[in-house]
Every structure is written in structure tokens, then in C-alpha cells.
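Study this:
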Amino acid sequence: MFFCEERHEQSDVGTEPPGGSEEVVSKWRMRDRMKTTSVALILCLNIGVDPPDVLKISPCARMQCWINPLSMQAQKALDCIGKALQAQYERWQPRAKYRLQLDPTVEDVKKLCASCRRNAKNERVLLHYNGHGVPRPTVNGEVWVFNKSYTQYIPLSVYDLQAWVGKPAIYVFDCSGAGVVVNTFLQLAQHGNLGSLGAPGAGQETILLAACGADELLPQSAELPADVFSSCLTTPIKIALRWFCQRSILRGDGISMDLIDKIPGQENNRKTPLGELNWIFTAITDTIAWNVLPQPLFQRLFRQDLLVASLFRNFLLAERIMRANNCTPISCPALPPTYQHPMWHAWDMAVEICLLQLPSLVAGDPNVEFAPSPFFTEQLTAFEVWLEHGSELKPPPEQLPIVLQVLLSQSHRLRALVLLGRFLDMGPWAVDLALSVGIFPYVLKLLQTTAPDLRQILVFIWTKILALDRSCQLDLVKDNGHVYFIRFLDSPQVPSEERAMAAFVLAAITDGHPKGQTVCAQSGLMQICLGHLPHAASPAGSPLFVRWLCLCVGKLWENFKSLQGEAFASGAAEAIAPLLAHPIPDVRAAAVYALGALIYVPPASDGSARAAGVNELDRAAAERTIACQILPGISDASPPVRVETAVALGRLACVHSMLFRSAAAWWRRGRSPRPSSQGGFSSDGGAASPGVHSRSHMHAPAFGTLGYRDPSVDNLAAAAGNGGREPGPESPPHPHSPHPHSPHPHSGNTFASADAARVGGGLYVHLLEQLVELAQDPSPRVAGVAQKALTATGIEPLLGSPRAGGSSLFSPGSASTLGGTPPASAHSRLAPNTPGSAGAVAGRMSGVPPSRTRSHSSLGSGAQPSFPPAFADQPESPKAGGGTGAGSDGKEPDGDVHAPLRAVLPKSHIFAWSCEHFSRSLLEPANGHAGGRARKETLKLTEHLASIDMDESAAPACMLMHPIAPTAAIADDRGVVRVWDYQSGAVLNRFSAGMPGRSVASLSLVNDLDDALLMTGGADGSVRVWRNYALQGEETLVTALRALPLPSAAHGEQRGGTSDASGVVSWQQQSGCLYASGDTQPVPLLRVWDMTRELCLESLQMQSPGTCLTAEGALLMAGAADGAVLSFDLRTPARLLSVVQTHQHPVVSILLQPGQTSNLVVTGSVNGEMKFCDLRNAAKPFYTTEVQRPSAGPGGGRPTLSALVAHKYAPVIASGSSERAIKLWDLEGNNVASIRYYNSFLGQRIGAVRSLAFHPNSLLLAAGSNDSIATVYSGEMSGAGAGSHRR
């Protein structure tokens, strides 16, 4: 299976990372956290006097805050109750400021509210009102207080009360008919007098909790306290146990109310009975709320404010108890009913298990120990069961909040973390769900532990969290969490795949976060990563680990100038450079990114004027070295590698912009012929500049090339490594001076000179040429990035400009974003009047005359790219002593010269794309093939005949039949691919193959028996792979590469009367190799690409341009334009086995072992000649035939053979030619049948045959002709031969 890696699952259509350009951050994090800092407690009890509107029974509830007010003097009881209520609230919020008002007046309440608001400022105020000693609220929305002499009840308007308290606030009304107050608040909110009542705006939010409805009275049962609602809110465990005992059969087992008060332990100690019950209660109420409330409401009420969360958690208990006593507590915002939730049964069981142990525990028997409840163990088991059967499409696990609580227990922590990790591995939706529950602060605090058994699962969990939301980097840096992951990364005994997760976490911490970069650098992260690189990159290492080590150091030193200096000094670039030859494309792309990140792009705050000291000159030389190291990535088969190469060159172009623009001007002006240092001339009449060889054949095709290396790139690296110096005159004239032919004692390698790099024929011209080539890459993603990189040089490309016809690749002067004369301050690193600066070099640049510019053969038609006129006619350089473009005082102009270039600087997306790996399931293997894509079903085919008229005068250039589905892919000579269902006659899809106006040269199926991908090869050597090619409008580009260098400007007429020579591409599914050959300049090449690693394995020279290719096992055969057939065995050191001059004209096709006939080779040439050979003696064909005898009359030439194909299993060969006939041959060379007419009533004669294709399995033949008609033929072939031939 090929092209099934993660990097191939995203469509290659643009430059944006998965999910768009803006990072999606989940909504779990509360943006406006609140605290309740002031609490006002108002108690209107009037002990000893019952309110007139309430008739109390006898006995009735009397307890207030668990104190009987009749057991002591009224005033003392009032004080004790007030202090007890305050103590109960302090249990939930000890840091708030509490103020009491006992039996107050209106003025007392007003002062209390004003004081609380003044202390709280913009935080929340809680007002608790107990009206058990006053009448019920009035229908006008008034509650009651007292006059100063306690002789009258005084009404207090709710409107005034809320005006004094302000917002945000939470109100607790514990009185009969409390629902009236809630209704009044709702009416005020409707009339706009209150703001948002229970609405999401936390700053203006008002929350209400009321004990009962508008027409309900509080319970008066003597078994309950009078303030049962307040007791539920402030002492939930005590009231819950008492209420349970009232209803439980355990009362007969010695469990009494008095015994409940003797439960040992403390509520904040989970190892004691009382603490464990409180722990279980918290977990159950959290679980109920999370399962019944909408997620935003749950976060507002249960995660925003600790006191509000506690009150609402306890409110769920109040609803259960009070509904059992015919009261309905009310809240605003309203909650759905929860009093019958199944989790309450789990609470009852936990209480029962605890109470059964109580008698023996209270008795003080030293042999009796408290047995912890199995509640959490059972809930973890239930969660584990859900993990076995749950999914995103099913309801979420209701035990998730319980897992959060279990993290607090050391005995259950490891199991809970493992189960949590399995849940997070189910996808980003699971991570977001866990974060919304509130898992984040728990796992953040666990980073402070030193338990070795938790390290791996904690790193895994944090990997999943940061893969979803990288804003957590702030929290990790704040709590020094990065140290935990650095230690884990530096643990050799840990598996490499797990350390790769730690590297990802550290890369996420430093991603665009200067403080994170600083603290990680101070902790020695760079040295640790570089130290682990050699082993990780070895054959025994992990590609994932080495990839993330590169990304980690790249993020660490990106735009971190001081650390970049340390990296250069410590040889970091040299340590990473060998990874450019790594067999895994993802590693190569990460290595290119890491090296490109060493190029410092000044931020806006840096300004533009910097001293050009020795450090800056060394930095510029080091950056040129990096450019030379990554340059072979331009011809890499993997689009991500080419993208990162273009991004890195874009960074270099931004900071060396003046030098790039000088190179552009030199390139524009240097067009006169000149002798080559190697004695030859370029294709446009000019010779290649020394050291600047023709890119078509001198480039290393990939980083991992075997036995092939671009000497110009070697020269580049060596030159830049020498500091970029070259012997030359001290002060040659400016290159744009009026004396273009001044002498130039220039020697050897132009790339070796930093000075020459600033003018034509040097490194910057070479880089500019490479960016131009990348801007025309077959991959839209690569081309888009390269076009931005070109713009970053100060040259604006025409994004849609075609190559052919001599069209300009760059906009005219007025369209340039940086039109006009480029200021010298646009260059970076070098200030005027310093050694090596533009000012000092201004007089030296014309030492290389314009005529020394190399010809750029890739531009097609011999046309040079035109640049803005501002670059074509530069003003004469200033005299010595003033920098180019500088002011009269020799200083650079003020302003940020990098700002316009930085705005268009291409962005790297390798990090964002790589992060997608950790968003996938890492614990479970992928289902099925190719990332879970389904296998297509086999269809039974029947014999049939069908035709399609493609109209639009588009001739079928090549065809391909699917081995299973009844479809045929047809590519025409205009670059359009049609997918045709030849059973139904419908065109399933029609799309452009990315080669507008040019013919598609070949079609191949990748993974043909699975979820097949369509590979299209262009005549220009470009290759594209498409997924979903048969679905209307859903075709997506998987990958694209340039298998051959760009076509030369001048093609010879080498194919015997056919069109210009073109590239040919052949795909071998068995080995995963792609073979490409064509008319490359100056020598024809045959390239072998390993598409598993996306590397060019071989770049072999041929004696003549290749015209056809075929491969079987390790044997590769190539037909040439001069009629020769070349055989290669890629396993042998020599590679080339034989060269046989089989024909005198270009070879059309080589049929290797047709019909599975061993050692049979059939070749055909354009003049209609077919030769049958034995593979073991290919130099002596045993039979020769012709598609048709030439006519004897004048002008009767031999018909041109245009197509020759053979069936893989059946002993039949088909040929097509210009004589408007398809001939069928057996394997002995006998013409057994001919097809001359379409299946129509009129018997229309077929056109000149353009393409042929057999079905891989069935006896079906597809044919395309120049009259825009494609046909499928099928049926029994009578007399087709015996399937073997005689020797």
C-alpha cells in the first residue's frame, strides 16, 4: 500500500494547515472566572414570636443551624445561630468576608449591602436571607424586616435590595413562599431593571436559590430542622445522613440520630469515614449535574466559582429532600429535576455501607479498621466497560466526573489515569469533554509528583491535551511544568515513541511563546535534543522521535536570536544536516524546518538599523550555509519537504532581501552570450556560469540519492562553510554601472564567494532560480508557498502566470509591492560601510559582467523572466563611502525595512500538520487499510460494448481501466481527466489534472485493488496523485512532485514526425517505485523514485531521451528516442545491464512478458515496426512484423504506431496507428483481428488511434482516437493463439 501515510490524508490544495489557518481552541476554559468575596447573612428569626401568617403544628421543626433556639435565651440563641451559620458557610469559602445582621431594620440591611459591595468590588456578593420569624414575602415582591423597637414588620422591596447589593450576586432565600421573590426578580429582569438574570454574562449575573415555590410553606416535621433548606446548602452530609436514617431499615440495627453525630473523621480527610462520605457526595452530585445540564451551564455553575459550585451541588440534595416533603426548591437559572437520578441510589448504598460499620467504629475496638467504600472502584469498572463499547456517537460516559475525583486518591490514581488516557485517545471530542468536566487543574497539579509509575501516562495525557488546545502552554510555564517533560525526554530507558510525546509537549510550550522558549532554553533543552539526535536517527532509532526532536529545537530557537547564536556556535546546524538524507519524508521536512528556523527574521520591535559587526557577518555566512544545505530539498518527491524548503528560503529572502533583489536585477540584465568555463554554451546561446550548472541534471534529486550528487550543491555548501570568501578584486565596479564588460579576474566557484553571491552568477541568483522553479511546482501547496517566498524577496510574482510563451513570471514595476528602486536598507545583517556590506560591495559588484549570468533553461521557450523596470535600470551606485540607497550621511533610512516583506513571509505548517498525529488514536491500531478507508466491493462484469463522445475536440491522450469497478479514466490532450462508467455510460467525474492546456502523458492506479488512487503524469515531468477521483467534485490531491527537471527550452524533433518529446512516467505497484524519463538537458536522465520514502534513489544518464518505460521485479527497461532499448538492474553496482539498438526510430512501447509468457519481450517503434525478442538474447529478435505494409504509390508512407499494449494474462497484443485501425496480435506476431469501425448503424470508421488500454483482468480493451471518441470493446477473440510462441 502506498500514499497511505498521514501526510497523504490531507488534500494538497493550499497552504493552510488542517482545520484552517486559525487554531481552534475548545471552550472548556472559563474566560471570566469569579470569586464570591463578600457574604451578607441576614437572619429575621424574632425568636419566641411566630409570624402571624404561619400556623405551626406541635411538635414542629425548631432547629436553626442545628441549634434549638428555645434551649437558651432568645438573644443568646440568635447570636449562636448567626455564628453557626457563618461557620457553616466558611466551610465552603473560608477566605470571604462575612457580615451578620440579626433581626435588622431596613437601614441596617442597606448599610450591610453597601459594605459588602464596596469590599467585593467587581466580584460576586452572596446574600443569605432567613425569614423564618417574619411573614411570607408579599405579592409585590417585598420581604420583611423589623423596626428599631421590634414592634412592627417593615417591608423591604426586592428592587431596593438588588440595587444595594449590585451585580454580580447570588441570593439565597430561606422562607415560606420564597418563589414570590424569584418571580419578582424575573419581572424586574423582563422590564430591564435588573440586567441579566441567570444569563451567561458573569459580570452582570444574578443567581437565585429559593427554598420553595410561591404558594408553598416550609416543612414543619420535627424530624427535620426548621432551616432544612439552609442545612442542605451548608451541611449536606449531616442532613443527608439524618434523612437517610429516617427512611432506612437500619434503625433496627442500632443506627440512631445520636450515633450519626459521632461519625469519626473530618470532612477534608478522605481516609476517614466522614471524609470519604463527603468525597463520594461531591463525586455523585458533580456527576448528576454534568449528565443533566448543558455543558455551558454546567461550567458556569459548577466550575466558575467555588462557593457557587458548592451551593449548587448541595442544592441537588435540597431538591431531593424537600421534594420528599412536598416542597419544590427553585433556582435561577433553572435546573432540570434531578431528585430521581439513578446516581442517588449509589449514594444510598455508600451511606449504608458506612453506617453499618459505625457501631463497631464508635465502640473503640482497636482491632476494627474502617473499610473504604467500593464506590470508586465500581465506578472505574463501569467507566472501563463504557470504554470497551462507547464512541463519539453514543452518550458520553456518566462516570467521567467521578474519574476526576478519583485522581485525588493515591490508591486509585494510576488506574484512573490509565482509563482517562484511553478515553482521551478516542479523539479530540473526548479531550474537549474531559476538559469541560474540569480535568485540567488536576493533571496540572500531578506534574508536581515524583511517582515514576505516573510519568508515562501523564505525558500521554498532556500530549492529548496540547494536541487539542495549545493555549495550555501558559499554565505549564507558570507552574514550571516544562521541567517534568524535559526530565522525561532525557530518560534513555523510556521508549522513543513516548519520549517523542514529551518532545511534542515541549515544542507546544515553546510554539510562539517567548517566555516558554526562555525557560526551556535555560533548562538545557537544546543540548538535550541535540544529544539524543544521533541515536534517534540511527537505523535502530524511531523516526517519530527524531522528527519531534527537530521540531522541538526548531520551535525553541525560532526567532530567539541569542539561542540561535549558541546553536551556531555549538554546531547545531551540522548536527541536523545529516537528517536531510533520512529515508522518512516527515523527518526530512522537520529537519529543513529546524534549519530554516535558525534564520533570524527581526520582529517589528527590532527596527531595521543594526550594527554589522563580526557576529552579524558570521550569522549571514551561517545562514547562507543553511541555504546550501537545504537546497536539494527543492527536488524532493515529498511536498512537505519542498514546502519547508520554500519557507526557509523565504525567511532568507526576507532578511537578505537587498541581495536577492540585486541578484534579480543582475539576472534581468545578464543576457549576452558568454563562454562557459567548461567549454560549452547554454541553450539560449549563453554559456553556463562557472559553478552554476544546469539545474535540469545537476541537482541532486533528493536528499537520499544513491550514487548521485549535485556538484554545484557541494560547491555551495563548501563555499558557504568557508565563510563565503573568494579571491577577487577589492573594488570592482557596480554591476549596473555603464561599463558592463569590465574585466573580471573571477576564478573557480562563483558560489564560494559571499561577494559574488550578491551579484549575478552567485548563490542568490541560484536561489532565485530555484524559487522560480518551486513557484511552478505541480503541488499547489508548494507553488503557493514559493510564490510568497518570491514576494518576500521584494519581487511580486504573477501567481497565475503560465510558463509557456515567454510570459513573465513577475509583475511589471507598477504592480510590484516594493516598486521603484530597492533601497539598500532592504538588505539585512549588513550595515553601510562595513566589510562585506552593500555599501562596501557596491563598487565590487560589476567585477562579474552581466554576460556571466547563467541561462535559465527551465523558463521554457528560451524566455528570460522579466522583472520590474526598477530592477532593470538601477541608478549608478554612489561613490565610495556611502552605502547603496543610503542617505547623504551614509546612514540607513529610518523605519522597519522588513515590515512589508515580513507581512508576506510564508508560514511553516509542518508543526501544525505533525500535531495531527497526536490527535489520532495512538493506543488502538487503525481499522482496515489506509487509515480505515473501506475496501471497494468487487462487481461482476459482463461482455459489452460502449462509446463516449468527449466532444470539445479533446483527444484521449491516455486511458486506464479499473481492475474491479466498471470505470475507465480518460485523460485528454488538454489536461482534463474524465472518469467514465462504461456500463451505464455516465461520466462520473471530470476534473483538471493541474496541467491546463497540456497533455497528460500517463495514467496509473496506486493501490489498485484497495482504495485506488489515480496517478497522473505530465509531459513536463510532473506527477500528481488523486484520491476520490471517481466521485463528482470530491477529487483531492494527495501529493505532487516533479519527477523530472523542467523541460528544456528547445526540444529537438526526435520522435519521427510526432509532437515534441515529452516525459514518460511508469508506476510499479509491487516495489512502490516511480520511474521517469524524458528529454532533459543537457543529458537525458532516467530517475527512480522510492515513493514509500519519497526519495529519489537513482538519477541515471541515458544516451537518448526516454520514450517508454516498463518494470518487472528488479528489471527496468527503457525505450529511447534513438530506437535503443536499455535494461537496468537496480540491485547491481553498474545498474545498466545492456543497451540494444533494437530499432532505428523512437520506441513506442516495451511489452515485458505479455500474457505471463516467460522471457518474451515485444517492442514497437513509431514507424510501425514490431519485434519479438527473448529476454535472454534481446539483441537478436526472433520475429519482426509491421502494423501495415507501406503502400507503393507516391506519398504512401508507413503509418505511425501510436499505441502498443498487451493483456497481463491473456495472450493478446493490441496496436493502434494513424491508419485508423486497431489490430490484435497473438504472441507469435500473427494479426488475428482488426477493429476499423465503431458500433453504429452507419458503420462509422474509427479515427486515428491515440491511446489503448487493456483491462487488468477481463478481456476488455479501451481505445481513444483523435476524433474525440473513446470506446470499450469486449468479447471472445477467436484464433487468438495458443498463448505460447516457438523459439
